[in-house]
Amino acid sequence: MKGGERQSRSSGKTIRKAILLLVVFGVVITVALCLTVFRDRFDVGSIARFFSSLDAKYIDTGEDLFRFDGGRENRYAMMGDKLVVLSTDNLTVFDAGGRVSLSHQKAFTNPELSTSGGVALAYDRGSVSAVLAKDVAVSSDFQAEGTIISASLNPQSWYCFVERQSGYKGIVNVYDSSQTKRFQWYSAENYIADAVISNDSKKLTVACFGQEQGRFVTKIHIFDISDKEQSNHYDIMDSMALSVQYIAADRICVVAEDRIVMLDEKGGLIAEKLFDGKHLRSYAYGDGFVAVVLSRHAAGGQCEVITLDKQGSQLGAMTLDEAPTDISASGDKLAIVVGAELRLTNKQFEEPFVWDKMPDAQSALAYPDGSAMLIGSGRAAYITR
After folding, report:
1. What is the dihedral of CA 60, 61, 66, 68, to 10 degrees?
2. pLDDT band for position 23 (50/70/90)?
3. Extended strands (E) in 301-370
4. How many CB atoms lie within 10 A of CB 379?
5. Less Cβ crowding at N or C end of the chain, within 10 Å?
6. What gap in Å lies between CA 110 and CA 232, rounded to an integer?
7. Residue 169, pLDDT score
8. CA quadruple 292, 296, 298, 304: dihedral positive or negative?
9. 351-364 pLDDT tens trace
10. Radius of gyration in angstroms for the set of CA atoms belonging to the chain, rounded to a whole number
């Protein structure tokens, strides 16, 4: 009996090995046929992207997927490891597991959102309504003094509003983390495009535009908040500033319609990078650098993403077949959405990672570790290498 059992077991193992070899052989033949028939559609890059995408933390249903009401007016931002979604009727904060940790109903005609650390500032552009949320709780639902044009938060939870009021071209109000007003500046001669508070909350930089001796001019004003006095200013002739940001403690970056201007903390010129006739499509600020998307045509065609450090030196460049729908920066990392693809890379564009499993991808929020929150129509997913 024992000898018969050994013979039966041996025969069974032989049969299983034969079946396994046939299965492996069939897979190899199938792959070979596919590569032969569709050889024009395959390349090493696409195969590498397929296998690398298997590591992405994307689950079609589960804790890694965030769901919400989609809308063209929605605004998205990260508040630490939490996703903030601002719609025309609600401010929603999701925790890292996709669960709602804050839901605050409020009507916004033109919703805009600014976040820093564990604080979110939601406001209605063209209105006076604003909401300040701290640590997943609404700390204040309030109204600005004038019509809000723009707003920004700094890492110490200080914030400023650019507002319109009768009798002035613009006003900037600065508030500390307890919502106490610390500074106010009225502009009687020039319109205000943007304003930002330094990371240490000591300075305020304001970008204004107007005319001077028949020429268009952007004026960058720098104020000492504690002294309530202007410390310096810098003029950019024949160009309009779109945005201003502290990309380092000692560096102010101005994105204008036809150039990038780097200033020191006192308003001294460090560098100026002209776009040489190319059109600015979009931009994003990182830690010590700025990324801009440029194209030779106002619409359509190839685009180039370039990054500049705080000295104005080019760090790298990437060519895209079409304009990205979104670009985001955090730390020294970038997240770029092109068509249905998410591209993760660093500011030198080294070792880019491509993920294309969300056909309705619209925007992305970069993390400093190189991952990103990818946002589609009414959903978002955390994507990592």
Report:
1. 100
2. very low
3. 303-309, 314-320, 326-330, 333-338, 341-346, 353-355, 363-366
4. 17
5. N
6. 34
7. 95
8. negative
9. 899 999 999 999 99
10. 26
